[in-house]
Amino acid sequence: MKRVRGTNRSSQSLLRFRLGTLLVCSLLALLALPALGQGRTDYMNVESPHVHPIEVARISGYDYLLVANTPDSSVEIYDTNEGLPPQSRLLARVRVGQEPVSVRYNPATRRFYTANFLGDSISIVIIAAPGGPTTLSVNLERTTLVGDEPMDVSFFDNAGTPTLFVTHMSLDGFGWRDAVSLAPVVPGVTERLDASVVMGPTTFGLKEPRTTLVTAQGVYILGGKGGNTPQYDFDLFVFDLATSTFRALGGVATTNFNMVAARNGDLFVVGQDALNRVLAPEPAVAAACTGFAPSTLSWVQNPSTATPVVLTRDLNALPGAACNPVAKPVALTQPTDVALLETDAGVRKVFLSALSSDRIGVIVPNSATPINWPRRTINVAPIQPSSTKAGPVGLAIKGANPAVSTDPGARLYVLNRFDHSVTLIDPIGETVVGAIALSLDPRPAYILAGQHFLYDAEQSLNGFSACSSCHPYGRTDGLAWDLGSPGQPQSPFNLNFSDGQVEFAGNPPVIVFNQLIDNLNNGFSDRKGLMVTQSLQGLLNFEVGMAERGFTTNAPYYWRGTRFDFPDFNGGFQNLLLGPGLTAAEMAAYHEFINSIHYPPNPQQLKNRVLSGVVGGTGGTSTLGQSGLEMYHTRPLCVTPACVPELEANRSCVHCHALPEGSNNRATEFLPNLELFAGGTDLIALETAALRGLFQKEARLDRSGLAISPVVTGFEGLAHQGGAVSINGFNLVFGAFF
Predict the structure, then answer these.
(1) What is the spatial distance between Cα 179 and Cα 185, in angstroms, rounded to a whole number?
(2) How many CB atoms lie within 10 A of CB 660?
(3) Chain segment 85-130, per-residue pLDDT in tens
């Protein structure tokens, strides 16, 4: 492969000097301002993904409602007596670790536990009320670091010793800890265990574990990224307690949000099953009958056995014709949580929170034919003056408690993400009977104003799809989509988008730059091929006001750099969601919100943010992390035996992968779309890939810095088509020529 220069060096240097001077002066002015946190206010938004943020705890015969106030990093405890005014039901508020996304009560230890996503910790709170609500006492016992991004906890009696399992999203693993001390149960394993299963010649690993449950039959861990390729379909990690064997269960969904266990051990799982493998290009994706990532409910029967049965219902399909969708006013999109109404005869109703539809779904699983399961809906309305959407995200259900005179009977409690409230529903009559506003909300007004646009399926033609269908919680679904638009006007190509040295791979391997520009003069090709969904995190390196964003932006966006700024994605509302698009005011609100989504802190970095090792200095040898930093900045980039020294010798990694995001936001590769046009010259200009969050996007569970792991996951991998399986795989290719 060769690189060719395509701009005048002297004019380029002058331009860089002027821009550099302007940038330095501007940054000095910004540094003169009072020091703030990474966000524009004291609140830093990482758009933490909820798992089980609301729980009913029966303590000394009385029911209490535990609510994770995620942005406030607290748990609020409410009386369930509806004879009290809503504002009088708050009994206590206890601070826990940063951004709790799950809260679970363990009667065996008389404590509740929170999985604190941003704080990388678990908090344990002792709770007691021997004489009812007036005697309630809560005491934060401990908050302990347990590893990156804990999502959920479940409880397991280990031969008389109470223990817990905790899932870790970005670590792609789980922990097993003492439920009182939080010390690891397995000696020497302080951070994680792999949820992996050997199947024939391949070992499969769970990607982004979310919910964990323990039943009499087994221990279950639900993977957030279930995959849908012939090589990988792994949704549920199962440990059979009767036989002490591990199993992998697939056939559920590509993105799994939550699960709940019935009394008989069956599981009910909610998620989205993307059609990226069968639909292409964009017009076909947009025309999908019930959305391009249909929302699903799966009933997993006998999950711990060798012969489980998975029955899955498309939540927005009706019996009859091959394409018979429900009407938009009753759509159920992005089901994030699930709860069961059971009797001695079994599961009577399944409730699910449709985050993107502002509704609760009611499904009656009464047959072996899922499409025939009756479905009903309950609308959830916001109660806060500043809210236009509620955003139901978490569910907790309680049965009637006739021993308590003030008990309201059976209730379904719904935590609303956008409205910062709890809706009360009668699960028998399926009616809303009340609502409670949470006590504190530190989120700034611009987040409240724009957040719902990420999730809102009302912006689509039929109510079945939203931005979050591919970008759950502002992240990535990890899947490759072909969103080309053949026959549509081509996107304009800005020659300033090229950094002057570009790579061309194909046959022939050398191309004259003028020919390259001629091929692109008419714009970017309208044919794209498969490209992995990118994250919406970190569109700004540092969150600043809208007027100052040009100094910290990572625009242009998208793999091909065709979105010069975020408002250019409004075309997605029209062409992919088939809606009218956002108004200028709506897009401005959405833009300001999306700029607030940060990457969480790097778990591989020391807490003092100092790299490991020592700096070698002049003539010395740096070690460990300092050696990597030195290599990244100074090692000449000569990645092939046929490199061109006069072009590549003065470049190192940082010249294309500029820090802090890891991209210079310029096109450094012009590749033929080999997938669609084998040996052709239909060129795709690719922006330098950012290097943030790479370990989360790996297709292998690499656990060392030296070798490619044999453990396969459901993520497509790195690069625009997922071709690089992991960071190690990428580095080994480059390392061969360093």
Answers:
(1) 10
(2) 14
(3) 999 999 999 999 999 999 999 999 999 999 999 999 999 999 999 9
